Amino acid sequence: MKKGIKQCQNCSQEFRIEPEDFDFYKKINVPTPTFCPDCQLQRKYAFRNERTLYKRTCDAPGHTEDLVAMYSSEKSVNVYDQKYWWSDKWDPMEYGKEYDFSTPFFSQIKELIQKVPWPNLVITNSVNSDFCNSVLDIKNCYLLFAAIKTENCAYGVDIDHCTDSFDLYYVLRNELCYEVMFSDRCYRSKWIYFSEDCTDSSFLWDCVGCSHCFGCVGLRNKSYHIFNQPYTKEEYFSKIKEFDLGSFKKINRMKEKCNELRLRSPMKYARIYKSTNVTGDNISNSKNCRACFNSIGNGLEDCSYIVDPYGPVSKNCHSGFALSRGDFCYDFISIRVCRNILFSKKIWTGDNIQYSYNCHSCSNCFGCVGLRNKQYCILNKQYSKEEYEKLVPQIIGHMNTMPYTDKKDRIYKYGEFFPAELSPFAYNETIAQEYFPLTKQQTIEQGYQWKDSEQRDYEITIKSEDLSDHINDVSDDILKQVIRCEHKGECREQCTTAFKIIPDELQFYRKMNLPVPRLCPNCRHYQRLKQRNPLKLWHRKCQCTGIQSDNKVYQNVAKHSHGSNHCPNEFETTYAPDRKEIIYCEKCYQSEVV
Q1: Same domain, 253 and 303
Q2: End-to-end CA distance of the chain, in Å?
Q3: What residues pair up with 25 in beta bridges, in sequence order?
């Protein structure tokens, strides 16, 4: 079977193209990539701004109102209020142009990206949620991003069907929760990670069906446990009262103790459930997938290098992010109900589209921006079916004979996603900075854009270290304060240097007995990101020796099929070899935990 080793033209590292990759490229008639999977993903992420918002003026004719937008005023793009953008009061076809065979294709699409207007935010069917982005059917929410069907929540990313919760990351169907990540169906709980169906609990990691548990790892269907030890109901509540979770200082001490327990407990090599022939992490209901991530509750079939799929099952897709019901899509961002989408971003309902950006209900388009309900268009210019089918192969040939070369001398022929230079965002405004963090110097050296922090016109009225330690000592006066973030803008976490507490937030902290945070929402977000594993796989062996872990930290509590011998199983895992966690294969893990 055919396979090959190539050298990435971006990072110069070798990467492998597997036989199934060649088969897929042949089916969709594209060449093999010249960027490795990591660099492909990094470049695509540099086109997605989820959380960086600005105030700027609407560019629509006759409109001068201020907007909350994901584009700063210094960006060389036109921005319309999203309601006006979706109206029939302007026509993206007015920006159409003839294809110029004397200029590289990417230079021409860059010009179109800068001229065609963009919606200030992506907010669909939502109420009282103006400071959110990439959201659908949400109500009374604040600083939520990539959220669906959620109410009364704030400060979170990838939120689905949640209510009355704060500080969340990649969660589903949670209520009255705080600081929850990769968890489903939890209620009245705090600091919950990779857990399901847990109620009235705090500081859980990899727990299922637990109630009234504190500081536990790997429990199943337990109640009244503290640090994995059972207590009577009366003893449990007495201890919880002693812990006094309304105190900021005491909570920090508990976090350290919980992390120590986690490092003494076996972790499953990957969170893969109800799936067959799958590698990656946080995957369920999938089959025949390689290096895919974050598909809990959704399904993938015959896919590779897919991150954050959502909605109905997708099939035969490769190298993409944010996918819902796609088929034969490749090298993309944000595809919804689509087929045969190549090298494109934000195509919602489409078929046979290449190198296009922010197009909706379109088919047979090449190099288009901002179109709706169109077909047989090139660079936003209308063609007949016959003209289109004749011109597209000529453009593909031209892309190969006159490729685009970026300022770092990277060459882009047909078969590569947009060069990062075409992104309307700076690198540190996008999720690329979250997954592949760079300093300003590194960003510029690698050919990406960087945006320095804007001058902020507020006066700090209280330092984070001067806040009351306990929530019981916090008065309503806190709502008037501008609080200096503990990081003071000295981190690489998009720190806003200061923040305020909103009324619903204070009410939530009091109801849940939680201290006021010391970090701004951005820095809190980055602390959550540190709890997740990278989107990268390492080949490793199970660390179970039959009696204990091979680092002798964990003593097994059950007999294993391999007896007292070292487990022979090997796997692909997101836990790097130098990590401190104890990593077991699925069989050894189930023997100890399930």
Answers
A1: no
A2: 40
A3: none
Q: How far is CA 90 from the centre of its chain?
A: 32
Give the residue numbers spanning the domain of 335: 282-400
| Torsion sign (Cα): 572, 577, 582, 588 | positive
Q: Which residues contact 357 (CB under 8 A, 6 or more apart)?
A: 109, 113, 344, 345, 346, 368, 369, 370, 418
Same domain, 213 and 180: yes
Report angle CA 474, 476, 479 to the nearest 5 degrees.
Answer: 100
pLDDT of residue 200 exceeding 70: yes
Does residue 421 form part of some domain?
Answer: no
At residue 14, the 3 state secondary structure works out as strand
Cα 146 to Cα 160: distance, rounded to the nearest angstrom: 9
Helical ranges in 402-502 per DSSP H: 432-435, 440-445
Q: Which residues contact 246 (CB under 8 A, 6 or more apart)?
A: 470, 471, 472, 513, 514, 515
pLDDT at 482: 97
Burial of 61 (0-12, 13-18, 19+ CB in 10 A): exposed
Residues 90-100, buried b or exposed e (16+ Cβ, 10 A)? bebbebbeebe
State the Cα–Cα distance between residues 275 and 206, nearest whole angstrom: 19
Lookup: tokens for 322: 């944010």
- Return all residues near 328 (Cβ < 8 A) that are at least 6 apart: 27, 28, 316, 317, 339, 340
Domain count along the chain? 2
17-22 LR contacts (CB < 8 Å, sep 24+): 18/290, 20/290, 20/304, 21/304, 21/318
pLDDT per residue over 8-56, tens digit each? 999 999 999 999 999 999 999 999 999 999 999 999 999 999 999 999 9
What is the Cβ-side half-sphere exposure of residue 492, based on CA atoms within 13 angstroms?
Answer: 18
Match 């600083």 to its residue by tokens.
Answer: 143
Q: How far apart are CA 563 and CA 559, in angstroms?
A: 7
Residues in the chain: 594
Tell whether pTM > 0.70.
yes
Residue ending a domain, among 400, 428, 460, is: 400
- 199 burial level (CB within 10 Å; 0-12, 13-18, 19+): middle
328-357 in b/e form (b: 16+ CB < 10 A) is bbbbbbbbbbbbbbbbbbbbbbbbbbbbbb
